[in-house]
Design a protein that fits this description.
The protein has a single domain, classed as Purple Acid Phosphatase, chain A, domain 2. The chain is α/β, with parallel strands linked by helices. Strands 8-7-2-1-21-22 form a six-stranded mixed beta sheet. It has a six-stranded mixed beta sheet with strand order 9-10-11-18-20-19, covered by helices on one side. Strands 5-4-3-6 form a four-stranded mixed beta sheet. Helices cover 28% and strands 29% of the residues. Helix 6 links the parallel strand 10 and strand 11. The longest helix is centred in the middle third of the chain and has 27 residues. Helix 4 packs parallel to helix 5.
Length: 331
């Protein structure tokens, strides 16, 4: 006797994935526009969404401004120059705060205040991004699933949980329904790095987190594994090997050549090899973009050039637990 209504639908869904925008205003706006541009019904933004740095802009007595950016002190003598600087900071994903010389000296002497200001500025930008997503995507039917990464502070990510947005959806730690036929699990933690970022765990602990998410999935054949860390030795995780004993960490060089290695997670690879989901979405290693098969699973890392305002992404068409088409994009 046929099981009427038990089979998955033949609905086709087009998904656009990008990751590691690191606070870049231009890159994030391009990401929001990608739904309409690529005719995608679902947007997925992988981890590392907040910026890396806050830049103090000192208001000088002459009416101008002073700021140190990437090791160079710049003097700005007009409002037009200030606007150009703010635009550049936004492109790079940096935050800023305009202050007097006295305020700067007071702040610089108090590391807790420096950290508090950074977190405040990061929350404010994320709140603005959620509001922008609501404005641009509201009423379009396009949903945006977002997860943090290892660089993202938990107290900043909390903004996503409390926003109440219906289109900018915090998907980490839950099984998300991508459409009526496919689900997605999301884990933003990474394995240990020399940078000691906020959400690093051992590879063993990462494996336990992933296993806990997998246990909640009823049909792994139709599931997407949105895991920030790429699978180990997959070509999606190739980067220079670093000497952790130096400050900052430096690339290891042998015979005049940088030593390259796979920096991804063994636990992520094991989970994919064992459970063979439909699709793996990864990031973390910016310079290692590509798409590879691990068994039946298509694994993708689009890479990241956020500081150039370039949106690297992947456009993927799914239907009935299968990848119908995929394409890496850049623009």
């Amino acid at each position: 006797m046929p099981l009427i209504g038990k089979k998955g639908s033949s609905k086709t869904t087009r998904l656009f994935y990008a990751t590691d925008v690191h606070g870049s205003e231009r890159t994030f706006r391009k990401f929001l526009n990608a739904g309409k541009f690529y005719e995608a019904q679902v947007l997925v933004l992988g981890g590392d969404i907040i910026g890396k740095l806050a830049v103090p802009i000192i208001r000088e007595g002459s009416g101008g401004y002073r700021a140190t950016l990437q090791g160079t002190t710049e003097h700005i003598d007009s409002e037009e120059g200030l606007k150009a600087l703010l635009d550049r900071l936004g492109l790079l994903g940096f935050y800023h705060k305009i202050m007097t010389e006295e305020e700067f000296r007071t702040l610089a002497a108090d590391q807790a205040a420096v950290d508090g200001l950074f977190h405040t500025l990061a929350r404010q930008r994320l709140e603005a991004w959620i509001e922008l997503a609501d404005t641009r995507l509201g009423g379009t039917g396009i949903r945006c699933f977002v997860t943090g990464g290892n660089d993202d502070y938990p107290n900043v990510l909390e903004v996503m949980k409390t926003s109440g947005s219906q289109v900018f959806i915090d998907c980490e730690g839950a099984v998300a329904n991508i459409d009526e036929d496919h689900t997605m699990i999301s884990v933003g933690n990474s394995t240990l790095t020399p940078w000691k970022t906020p959400r690093e765990v051992t590879d063993e602990e990462l494996g336990r987190i992933i296993d806990g998410m997998i246990a909640q999935v009823s049909d792994l054949h139709r599931c997407i594994f949105n895991l920030h860390d790429p699978p180990n030795d997959s070509t999606l995780d190739t980067c220079p090997e670093l000497d952790w004993a130096t400050d900052p960490p430096t690339p290891i060089v042998k015979a005049g050549q940088m030593v390259m290695h796979g920096a991804g997670s063994k636990s992520v690879r094991k989970a994919i090899e064992t459970h063979q989901p439909m699709l793996g979405l990864h990031g973390h290693i910016h310079e290692s973009s590509g798409a590879v098969k691990i068994g039946r699973t298509l694994c993708i890392n689009p890479g990241s050039e956020y500081g150039e305002g370039i949106l690297r992404g992947a456009l993927i068409t799914i239907s009935s637990g299968e990848i119908k088409a995929h394409q890496l994009t850049s623009g």
